[in-house]
């Protein structure tokens, strides 16, 4: 067998999730399954439904000489976010279709639309990252970050959610984006709201400077690939050619879960209410929607597990643990 077996054709379709993440940290796997069990959720079943059954699914490449488990751990944590985004969309659709209280109809509409787009973007990012296409992956990661900001803004500003819902064509949607989201406008709104509850993300903080730097790097991917005629070469022992995009996207989804607890109404509680309100009604399915509320707290508990992206100059770095 070669060092890299990207499709793992030998793995049975019903195999446990860990078989698709060769080299995964046993401690991280155990902790994640413990978090799911504490919420009375079947991790294996939901993973197969939300991740394994994706039309774009591919297993993590097998690298027998990987220095640490950090890169595989990162994909595993990223996939948790993808499960949550799919669950969020299912719950938001229930909230919209059944006029569930807690959020306005416009907020449900915006959340459903953005979670659908995030699901597609995360699926695409996963496929690109695992198939060594870092430049387009970076472009998608930047778009994911903008959609996370927009989702938070719609939760914080119901009137803005109404303006978004009133967009009827591409021109109106583009105008909304330029006025309220692009150029850091959404981030400024979020920073102001978080500051009111004691979280300082103003422009002069280390976090704001780091975020700006990362977004600048991701944004540069739109043009930087034209500056070189050479295809990037994989480093020895690497699972991913570039894990920065996966790391930043995972971090932003973790932030969305965490910050949604700091605004009113409490998003996980509202999502659970949507599932409860739609229970038993014709045409509803809670298989994924029921995960949205409890999985929010699970993702927040995984924030400490998100290691710094692997670096070729730090082969001794230990794997991520919870």
TrEMBL record:
<protein>
    <submittedName>
        <fullName>Uncharacterized protein</fullName>
    </submittedName>
</protein>
């Amino acid at each position: 067998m070669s060092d890299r077996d990207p499709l793992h054709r030998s793995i049975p379709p019903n195999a446990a999730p860990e078989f698709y993440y060769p080299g995964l940290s046993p401690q991280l796997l155990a902790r994640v399954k413990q978090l799911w069990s504490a919420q009375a959720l079947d991790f294996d079943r939901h993973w197969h439904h939300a991740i394994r059954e994706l039309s774009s699914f591919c297993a993590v490449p097998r690298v027998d000489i990987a220095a640490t488990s950090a890169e595989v751990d990162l994909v595993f944590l990223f996939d948790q976010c993808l499960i949550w985004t799919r669950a969020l969309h299912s719950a938001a659709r229930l909230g919209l279709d059944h006029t569930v209280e807690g959020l306005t109809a416009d907020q449900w509409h915006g959340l459903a639309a953005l979670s659908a787009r995030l699901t597609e973007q995360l699926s695409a990012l996963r496929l690109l990252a695992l198939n060594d296409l870092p430049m387009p992956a970076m472009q998608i990661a930047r778009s994911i970050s903008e959609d996370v900001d927009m989702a938070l803004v719609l939760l914080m500003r119901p009137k803005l959610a109404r303006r978004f819902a009133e967009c009827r064509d591409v021109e109106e949607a583009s105008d909304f984006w330029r006025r309220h989201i692009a150029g850091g406008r959404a981030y400024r709104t979020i920073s102001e709201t978080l500051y009111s509850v004691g979280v300082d993300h103003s422009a002069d903080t280390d976090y704001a400077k780091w975020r700006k730097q990362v977004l600048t790097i991701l944004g540069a991917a739109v043009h930087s690939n034209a500056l070189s005629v050479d295809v990037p070469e994989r480093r020895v022992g690497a699972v991913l050619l570039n894990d920065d995009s996966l790391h930043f996207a995972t971090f932003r989804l973790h932030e969305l879960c965490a910050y949604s607890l700091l605004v009113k109404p409490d998003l996980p509680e509202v999502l659970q209410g949507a599932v409860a309100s739609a229970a038993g009604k014709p045409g509803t399915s809670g298989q994924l929607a029921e995960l949205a509320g409890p999985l929010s707290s699970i993702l927040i508990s995984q924030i400490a597990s998100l290691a710094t992206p692997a670096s070729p100059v730090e082969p001794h770095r230990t794997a991520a643990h919870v």
